[in-house]
Description:
18% helix, Hypothetical Protein Pfu-838710-001, 2 helices, alpha+beta, eight-stranded antiparallel β-barrel, Adenylyl_cyclase_CyaB, 142 residues
Amino acid sequence: xxxxxxxxxIDDLEECQEKASKxxxxxxxxxxxxxxxxxxxxxxxxxxxxFKNQDSVSELIFYDRPDxxxxxxxxxxxxxVEDPENLKVFFQFFILSCSSYVFFITRGVCQKLAxxxxxxxxxxxxxxxxxxxxxxxDVKFF
Length: 142
């Protein structure tokens, strides 16, 4: 799959969410509590996303995008994970078994609240992390 990401720092999260809601036909956004664990990867980025407020299945997500300012074209692939804690243990076991590999070592963790609203083929997402950001992703399936 492929999407276009545009991220910007915002000063007034409430005002920004109101504008995003208007752009998405007044929808009330869906709130997603996400806990992302990032792993070292030989190429691109690899993260395990666990949804904290839902019974939904977690996701292992690989994505590749440039490290640059402004809009970014991003290729990504997702796989459902029913037991995310066991997957982390699996990665740790893999590292111990293959000491020459530096992949799958935890690189970082991010917890965020995402307010998600959609309009046609567009999805707008406001993230509350340590800093306030508004993100826009135009999702296209190829």
